[in-house]
Write a structure and sequence with these properties.
binds ligand LLP; single chain; nine-stranded mixed beta sheet; eight-stranded parallel beta barrel; 2 domains; 29% helix
Length: 419
Amino acid sequence: MTSLFFGGFMINYKELEQKYSTPLYVYDENKIIEIMHDYKDNFKSDEFNTKVLYASKALSILKIYRLVKEHGLCADVVSGGEIFTALKAGMNPQDLYFHGNNKSPYELEYAISNDVTHIVIDSLSDFNHIEAAAKKLNKKVSCLIRLNTGVEAHTHKFIVTSHIDSKFGMLIGSKDLNQTLELIKKSKYVILEGFHSHIGSQIMTMEGFYAAIDKLLDYLKNFNEVLSLNIGGGFGAKYTCDDKPLEIKAIVNGLIKYTTEKLHQLNIKIDTLMIEPGRSIVCEAGTTLYKIGALKQTPNRQYYFIDGGMTDNIRPALYQAKYEGYIVGKENLPKRLVTVAGKCCESGDIIMEDTYLPDAEEGDLLVVKSTGAYGYSMSSNYNKALRPAVVFVHDGASRLAVRRQTFNDLIEGEIDENI
Ligand code: LLP
């Protein structure tokens, strides 16, 4: 299997390597589109509006915002830079929801003056900054308040009582929240659109989401207006054979059903229900292609050294994230225990520790699977490594989405009077 089956078409990794070189991020565009539609077409209700916001921190390049726009999703953005990129890709500013615990006055003014007027309030102080920016520009903004429901989900479990010191959101019943609501009532610029909650990431069961919906709707009962709810993202993706994420259709059907029943029970209405998936849209559609450069046997370990590493995927070093991969052309050969390490001056620069791969030779191509989320978007130039190229494969044809950096890119912005 030197080829990967991409959306019904075979793509040859050797050809990709010849055309674009390595390390290379390769995305299956057909798969991303399919997942976007799985979300959008199934997350529907007769009783309230629905919106799917792609959490763009998972991969925030022009190409993905373009797909988000073309396939009718909205996006969650968390910085001036993400807003800039989304707008450059042609997204409607009204389809962007601006998050963040410390949006700067500059970012807020940039957002609001570009008609990005859906903003998520994270704290009382954040509210003050949002109002000041809206007032300065004499524009109205429509805000969700991020609530800390106390529900925290860790992949398979959830806890309802922890999390009170979270960096994000306001605790239900807190003085800050009540004061923010009072200030919104008096504000000429900030309109209350509703509430938001995000309980965690890589979640494999529904209970945490249901517990958060309970908290949000119980809270909503205190309001006379018909408001909107955003229940965040965090739906799991499959990195290795140990991960068992739920199907997207089952997730969104479950959310709609649970919310509808609870609304009936409480006899209240909502305007719009929103979700914010990031990882589950791009993770499994992305792979990284590396070349094995050097090999080394230590007393206890066989190393395969690749031409990338923590600069294009920090997740193993940062979160002990696990990945699986294979060597192109050697898929069916017997495997043994090896460690795949990157080329940074850092012992922790390991992409797969104690993984099973066949014997390798210098020049072999290694594919690491499910690297599509938070890989490229968290990449860095540590050791002045070049950020890799990103390629999207659609209906069998590959297209460059981001070109590989050059040495000159590395000093762009640096000031040296002698150059
Ligand atoms: N909404 C909010 C408010 C969020 O904070 C996040 C993720 C999402 C949505 C999307 O969550 P997702 O569906 O992608 O799980 N760098 C880490 C992940 C950080 C997630 C931060 N917030 C990683 O590589 O695993």
